[in-house]
Write a structure and sequence with these properties.
Blueprint: E1 2-3, H1 10-18, E2 27-28, E3 37-42, E4 50-55, H2 78-116, H3 120-133, H4 139-162, H5 168-180, H6 188-202, H7 206-219, H8 224-239, E5 241-242, E6 248-252, H9 259-262, H10 269-275, H11 279-291, E7 294-296, E8 303-308, E9 311-316, E10 320-321, E11 326-333, H12 339-342, E12 349-352, E13 358-363, E14 369-372, H13 377-387, E15 399-402, H14 421-437, E16 441-444, H15 457-475, E17 480-482, H16 494-501, E18 506-510, E19 515-519, E20 522-529, H17 532-537, H18 548-551
Parallel strand pairs: 1-2, 6-11, 6-20, 7-11, 11-15, 15-16, 17-18, 18-20
Antiparallel strand pairs: 3-4, 5-10, 8-9, 12-13, 13-14, 19-20
The structure holds zinc ion.
Zinc ion binds near residues 333, 334, 449 and 484.
Length: about 550
């Protein structure tokens, strides 16, 4: 008999049974008050002998009294076995968890580093690769961690952007990359709203900023940062001033990059001197316009349709600008890069760089091929506005007036039967789309640069139809017509009526000072020519824009 209150150890129990041949250890007696189970020895011949407890309700195991004549192979106390199994599983879990932790941490760090370096397309590839490599289900873990990393990165970037330490282009490419990654960080919508609202506000579009933030507050009610930004934009909106003064419209031709090639006494030199400005001159003019408080606006900001007693007419639209700002419309004529331009020190065409931004392509006098951002109005202004968003109202840049007879933007989109036509058209289209995304708009400058006032209606019809087929098909519809040579026709003229029926309602001529007239169904506006003629012959008319002596290129010969 073994008194169960003596049994504290299974080994002792078994030993007592084994060492007493012919006896069967029996366990009996009262259970100690703190024990709900009875110690017992059980096991089968040739099997490990187990010692364990049988509860009063039974163990579910078949108790088998040990045969003391059979030496058990081993003694494995049941509870110790259970303990080690549990411990083993626990260790496995810990190791698995640690391994997964290390793996996910390393992957997430690599992903975060790519984000930090601005390598967004690499980050996308990395995410896809890492998620694709994981067995089903666990990519969710990775996704969660990547989303967390993105949230952190976006928060930093938004903070930097709001405090002017980062620029919009980097942020927007990050946000674009995120949308392609099918990752949805918890605060993505908030960050998007903060960035878009700030972007709008920097272009003085306070009302858009306000509506973006108000909408985001529906998803993130009470968010402190959103509330603070909303208050800022409301204050700025209240400070806008209704502008009622004159609206300036100036125009340029494509720029001269190499004056030594333009002003070289050949047969084109005089014309280039009369009608073009150099890169250096344009940069100085731009700085002066900014300094004098001009702000670029889209031409559609100056008129709207209003219906009175069933009659619709064009009227001046209310224009609310930041205080001390004067609206300015800018256009570029003949941004087609005609052969004479390409041969005389000007750019060859506009192209897209590897980031999808517009650049100029040109060939140096030494024959070197160059992709540049500081040689054409479009790219110079893109950069200037990025640095000085307060120079652009709602992100507006300028109007690009295109003919069609020599293609557009340096692409031979007129050579319909050429084997390279499809490629030329595709490249031109890509550049056009990017220009339209970045604040540029387009106008008709006729197909063949014909002199509207001197040509017949049928000539004008033929010219306009050709323009629609070859140019409007690329740029989309436009309601702005920019007369070639500034050669206008009266609003009562059949040719004017024809152009109106063709979809145009803003008609631009050329004049030395601002001229703007609203008709019920059209708008007639003169543009001031910024060129050698103005520099040499009317410098005093330009003083509200810039001082000629401060901008004129010393290499420009007198006219
Ligand atoms: Zn022209």
């Amino acid at each position: 008999m073994i008194e169960n209150d003596l049994i504290n150890d299974y080994f002792t129990l078994f030993y007592m049974a084994y060492m007493t041949p012919g006896t069967r250890p029996q366990v009996s007696g009262k259970l100690p008050a703190n024990r709900k189970t009875t110690p017992y020895i059980f096991g089968k011949h040739d099997e490990p002998v187990n010692i364990g407890y049988i509860t009063e309700r039974g163990t579910g195991m078949e108790p088998n009294m040990v045969n003391p004549h059979e030496k058990p192979v081993a003694i494995q106390p049941v509870r110790r076995k259970q303990y080690s199994a549990v411990l083993f599983i626990f260790l496995l879990l810990i190791m698995g968890w640690l391994g997964a932790y290390v793996y996910f941490k390393a992957e997430t760090n690599r992903f975060s580093n790519l984000l930090e370096q601005g390598e967004y397309s690499e980050a996308i590839d990395y995410y896809r690769h890492a998620a694709g490599f994981l067995p089903g289900g666990s990519e969710k873990w990775l996704k969660g961690r990547f989303e967390g990393a993105l949230d952190v990165r976006l928060e930093e970037m938004v903070e930097d952007y709001l405090s002017n330490r980062a620029d919009y282009s980097e942020l927007s490419s990050c946000l674009k990359a995120v949308s392609q990654m099918s990752l949805a960080p918890a605060h993505l919508k908030k960050y998007q709203a903060l960035v878009e609202a700030e972007h709008a506000s920097r272009f003085s579009d306070e009302h858009r900023a306000i509506s973006i933030v108000e909408k985001a507050l529906e998803d993130y009610p009470g968010d402190a940062l959103l509330e603070a930004q909303l208050a800022r934009y409301r204050k700025r909106a209240a400070e806008l001033v209704l502008y009622e003064g004159p609206v300036q419209h100036i125009f340029f031709h494509p720029l001269i990059v190499y004056p030594e090639k333009a002003f070289d006494d050949d047969r084109m030199a005089r014309g280039l001197n009369e009608f073009m400005v150099t890169v250096r001159e344009f940069n100085r003019i731009l700085a002066s316009l900014y300094e004098k408080g001009y702000i670029l606006i889209d031409i559609h900001e100056i008129f709207e349709e209003r219906t009175n007693n069933g009659r619709t007419e064009l009227v001046r639209k209310e224009l609310w600008l930041p205080k001390n700002r004067k609206p300015l419309i800018l256009s570029i004529d003949d941004l087609n890069f005609y052969p004479y331009m390409k041969e005389n020190g000007m750019n060859q065409k506009l192209v897209l760089d590897s980031d999808g931004n517009v650049a100029a392509y040109l060939i140096s006098p030494e024959g070197e091929e160059i992709t540049a951002y500081d040689t054409e109005i479009v790219t110079i202004l893109d950069r200037f506005v990025a640095e000085h968003p307060d120079f652009s109202y709602k992100g507006a840049k300028g109007i690009i007036a295109l003919t069609g007879f020599n293609g557009v933007l340096g692409y031979q989109t007129n050579a319909i039967s050429s084997p390279s036509y499809a490629a030329e058209k595709e490249q031109a289209l890509a550049v056009i789309m990017r220009l339209q995304e970045t604040g540029w708009s387009f106008a008709s400058h006729g197909y063949g640069h014909i002199d509207t006032a001197r040509r017949s209606l049928s000539d004008l019809i033929e010219d306009t139809e050709k323009w629609k087929v070859e140019v409007e098909s690329l740029i989309g519809p436009t309601d702005v017509y920019i007369y070639p040579y500034g050669s206008t026709v009266p609003t009562t003229d059949p040719r004017f009526k024809y152009l109106q029926q063709s979809g145009f309602r803003v008609f631009c001529g050329v004049g030395p000072r601002e001229y703007l007239r609203y008709y019920p169904d059209s708008l007639v506006m003169d543009r001031r020519h910024i060129d050698g003629i103005a520099f040499w012959q009317q410098p005093e008319t330009l003083v509200d824009l810039f001082t000629v002596s401060e901008v004129i290129d010393p290499v420009r010969p007198p006219l």
